[in-house]
Design a protein that fits this description.
167 residues, mainly beta, 4-stranded antiparallel beta sheet, 16 strands
Length: 167
């Protein structure tokens, strides 16, 4: 059934248990909003920046990961699903787009630029371990349900994006 959100607009929807997560703007700020029980609540926002891709909800629905572009840099953040305890994960990579939670919830995969080169990497939840998985253009990572491999869009060849996988 139709959902009426109380913000100017919404994009990049994600479904959590009993709620809809989405990105919306308010003035010069862009934020992550939660729609539940007929009302919208802003969980996090950035003034003068923008959220890249879609927020990713962990499988246990306890945390949300997202990428933000602000002041010419992109960074990946994690927060609790109620918007509390938001923190930047690491400064050693520049994420490009939507992150993907590993099935065990202990790391996050993201397409990123590392040392000026395109990569697909995993980042531990403490942000201390950044492990490049492939050193090529990658986008839109998604884990297999059992966590055995990760699929992603590979480099653009003409008008075609290849689908690739890494274990």
């Amino acid at each position: 059934s139709p959902v009426t959100i109380r913000t100017i607009g919404g994009r990049s929807p994600r479904l959590g248990p009993g709620y809809l997560l989405y990105v919306s703007s308010r003035g010069n700020a862009e934020g992550i909003w939660k729609f539940a029980d007929g009302k919208s609540t802003e969980l996090w926002s950035v003034s003068g920046g923008r959220i890249l891709g879609r927020p990713a909800i962990s499988r246990d629905a306890a945390r949300i990961a997202f990428s933000v572009q602000e002041h010419g840099r992109t960074r990946m953040y994690v927060m609790n699903s109620d918007g509390s305890a938001a923190r930047m994960l690491t400064d050693s990579l520049e994420p490009r787009g939507t992150p993907a939670w590993a099935p065990d919830g202990q790391s996050i995969a993201v397409a990123a630029t590392i040392g000026g080169k395109p990569s697909l990497a995993t980042v531990s939840l403490d942000g201390k371990t950044v492990r490049p998985m492939v050193s090529e253009f990658a986008a839109d990572p998604a884990w297999s349900p059992d966590g055995a491999f990760l699929v992603y869009s590979g480099p653009d060849v003409g008008t075609t994006f290849q689908i690739r996988a890494v274990s």
